[in-house]
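<context>
A single protein, sequence plus fold
<entry> Chain with its tokenised backbone below
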Amino acid sequence: MAGAHRRAAHRRAAPSGAPSGAPSAVRPVASSGTSSAAPFGAPSGAPSVAPSGAGRDRYFDALRAFALVRVVAYHTFEWPWLGFVFPSMGVMFALAGSLMARSLERPAARVVRSRLRRLLVPLWVFGAVLGVAMAKHGWLPGADALYWVLPVGDPPGDAWGEQAWAVLWYLRTYLWFVLLSPVLLRVLRLAPLPVLLLSLVPVVLFETVWSVPDGRLGSALSDLSVFLFCWLLGFAHRDGVLDRLRPAAVLAAAAPLMAAGAWWAFGHRVDGTYDLDDIPLAQALWSAGFVLPLLRFRPDFGWLARRPVADRIVSVFNARAVTVYLWHEVALMASVPLIDLMWDVPAFERDLPLDSMWFQFGIAWVLIALAVALFGWVEDVAAKRRPRLLP
């Protein structure tokens, strides 16, 4: 994915006295790592807090929350196998596609405007904060800064802030899917299963026959081709196409897709790694095979309402999904100097596992919670709801 090929390179050595395994500054920015508020799939009329009762699919909500946790875990630990265990971005695009199809039961123009507003307003706030920070580090924006206003291409930035802005490939891809959805939904309904199969053709061609052009256009085409199947699969789920398929047929389709994805990943490693985020065709095939049964076999998550703490966590993740995604890399960046300072406190150095990546993971979530408190209300404004400090 576009972000996957821009590995950030700002690693910091541990402070003097810190073990060499101390957390480092930057994680790869990749697609495994975008659904709840509009860019992450929540219905445009969703309340600030997703209620446990009727009107919300708590299975979808739980998947979305888990996908976001997995994204943060991947960007912390850099484990390449995480993409096989749970391909978060494929899941998030499928969930968003399903809810986009539901929203398109209303006039398309109004739905698209609502989705764009709920995507762009949080992005503008994020861009304003990050832009000021990058300017203080010497970045001078040019005409391409307009991509921060409407990210039809990757917004620009400098090397210092790359870890933070490179994740925006997901929002750019989501924006294009939203714009194309009225047409894509009509096309899918002409012949759902053939269209689903044909949706994998572009990524196969781009990876085996033609190369995408360099620059923003190529990045956009590549990411759209990788996740087109998942987005359309969300449409098919909403239209009941998947429910009409026999379970055996679903498994018979999913297994070869995943097998082909794994085979391609291990046979086309990039820099020695089988990380799906660096291998677009493998990502597309594995995600397609993984998400297909995930949407067909939907367990009842009504039990979540009987566990108030878990239910509340899932609700908050869904109400603040855009904020969590936008700011999680900033939290990881900020966790490094914060942990560096902790090494200077003898009690912390003695009693806390400062050299553990798990400790950095925990600190990052504390900082993400702070970002939710500081900026999460922007999602309410974007959705034309009463702003709330915490959902």
Summary: The radius of gyration is 20 Å. Residues 2-38, 42-54 have pLDDT under 50 and may be disordered. The CA atoms of residues 380 and 386 lie 6 Å apart.
